[in-house]
Amino acid sequence: MREWIRIGRALSAFRPSANAFAGGRLSYAKVQVLTRYLTAENEAELLTLAKRIPAASLPEAIAAWTMANEPGEVVDARHHRDRSVRIRNHADGTRTTTIRSNGTVGGTLQAAIDAELMRGALRREPDGNWPSIAQQRHDALARIIDGTGGSQQGNIGCEVVFHVRGDGCALDDGTPVTESAVARLLDRAFIRLLIHGADGKAVNASTRRRLPNKQQKRLVKERDRACIDCGRKELLTYDHNPAWEQTRRTHTDELELRCVPCHRKRHHEDETA
What is the domain partition of the chain in residue ranges? Predict the structure, then answer.
């Protein structure tokens, strides 16, 4: 009910958006996102964007639009103002913790959790089922907090990758970040260049090692961008196709980006066959 009131009040100040919603040209899901960012100056462009973008992709599209059309200091100030940690207690004794942060803090937290997840051994639940990705992330965070994971004394041991291109900056999963946020990290960052050839593709690399090196990982990540099976942009692994046991080499043209669940599923199907 509170959210309906918020949306109604917001739409009362933006007649074109209200008319689009009333006429069925905007869904409730789109209006729910759109009304959080509308201003008199940006309504026309954001309304056009919302009409052609699916509701599930609208938050990312608006984030990319603001990065391209608003000064970095304005975006940074909004991120600083909206930062929060909220904890909600449930009747069964569990808690829901919601963290809202900028890309650098949020990206580092996700990288730390996922690094610990990938480092830990996967075990079945007492009921015989495999834990979901969300459950695995919870367990990884718990190990980081209580010190039983791979990290020691706050040294998480993870890598956070920021892409700096001519059209803007982004985390490895595509989440946009401001140039000023990246600039604040430069004095303690390690910088690598990813070289592209005349055809616009990243320069290839090959090795006899089974595990790809960092250069190869960056080349494959730049090429595939997400899991080639399901489109997930997190918990990604580098899968040999054909299998390394057949070729005894690791070549970027024979590596495919797959998330952990799809990677596990593919090899389970191969073993079954």
Answer: 2-69, 103-191, 195-272
Summarize pLDDT for 69-113 with one digit per residue, the tens: 989 898 999 999 999 999 999 999 999 999 999 999 999 999 999
DSSP states along the chain = -HHHHHHHHHHTT-HHHHHHHHTTSS-HHHHHHHTTT--TTTHHHHHHHHHHS-GGGHHHHHHHHHHHHS-HHHHHHHHHHH-EEEEEE-TTS-EEEEEE--HHHHHHHHHHHHHHHHHSPP---TTSPPPPHHHHHHHHHHHHHHT-SS-BTTB------EEEETTEEEETTS-EE-HHHHHTTGGG-------B-TTSSBPP-EESSSS--HHHHHHHHHHH-S-TTT---SSEEEEESS-HHHH--EEGGGEEEEEHHHHHHHHHHHHH-
Residues in the chain predicted with pLDDT less than 70, given as ranges, are: 150-157, 192-208, 269-273
pTM of the model: 0.71
